[in-house]
Amino acid sequence: MVNSAPSQSSEGDCITLSRYVLHDLKSFSQPAQDLSALMNRIALAGKLISRRLSRAGILEGVLGFTGETNVQGESVKRMDVYANDIFISVFKESGLVCRLASEEMDQPYYIPENCPIGRYTLLMDPIDGSSNIDTNLNVGSIFSIRQQQGEQIDGEGNDLLQDGHQQIGAGYILYGASTMLVYSLGNGVHSFTLDPSLGEFILAEENVKIPESGSIYSLNEGNFWQWEDSIREYVRYVHRQDGYSARYGGALVGDFHRILQQGGVFLYPGTVNKPEGKLRLLYETVPLAFLVEQAGGKASTGTQRLMDVVPDRLHARAPLVIGSPRSVELVESFHQQSTSQSQQPAMADQ
Ligand code: AHM
Ligand code: MG
Prior knowledge:
Elements: H1 17-25, H2 30-54, E1 65-69, E2 75-77, H3 78-91, E3 97-102, E4 109-110, E5 120-128, E6 139-147, E7 167-175, E8 179-184, E9 190-195, E10 200-205, E11 216-218, H4 229-240, E12 245-246, H5 252-262, E13 264-268, H6 281-294, E14 298-300, E15 320-323, H7 325-343
The structure holds 2,5-anhydro-1,6-di-O-phosphono-D-mannitol and magnesium ion.
The site of 2,5-anhydro-1,6-di-O-phosphono-D-mannitol (AHM) has 12 residues, from strand 5.
């Protein structure tokens, strides 16, 4: 057991991610060592991606599109491919992760030499918010860790079609003014800032707690006329109140990070054409749901707790309402109102 809590007393005693993870898990056991090593590899991927992004404007072949489309039919950016390859390469010969599943890949990627010992699957969105890359705005990587169950896993990853409670950890890396890594392995949420001079993620805040409510609402209001009534009613309500602020950066990780720190709610609702919304369950919304719940917040589809949703396919999507508990409940109350109204018998004409 690790007994003494590391303390951040001076610049010479900064707490690195690898040191902190073992403290967080309160163990030096083999599984704890493995998870610590796994988090270190994720951090390495984050450092490599961060380094490339920081020089994007002066390196050849970083910005722009590849000309390909991914499994979702979306145009692929060069950085999407780079970041996806980085996550794969940092786990090769690691003995840790047998399989990676990513927003960018049709089917899971197996690293057979790891599989006899590496019982983990890493799910990820290697670059989330990639439309921000070419304008030098913040983007992120989202990750989720699941333990493989049983000996047999099929090539298509059907065993991954389970609810969010199967996650043993989740987090994100935010490539912003500084690069931050925020994670939870089920014992609270902890945040780290990359110190480029050391090349290490240093503890910024342990046990991050989201405020009970907040004044920020974050959604793409350009879709107003495509939403269902309940979301439109919620936004009309917000417009009539004093003190709300709209904040939307077009990259989920950055928008979510602000809400985690300052409170409020992020929404990506379904639209007429896409009732299930835009964001993917396994790579984006469910990992953040795990994290926000660990920070005392809530995540829902508007009508159902997100952690309970079972995807019907690897790249399934669902509407997202995530943030401070009271702020999420407020959005849900508009859904409930609209459901109860639609269930009332139509008034007979007088
Ligand atoms: P991506 O993973 O293809 O980048 O798409 C996800 C991003 C989120 O980061 C962001 O919240 C959302 O798409 C923005 O979508 P929109 O431009 O429709 O507002
Ligand atoms: Mg994404």
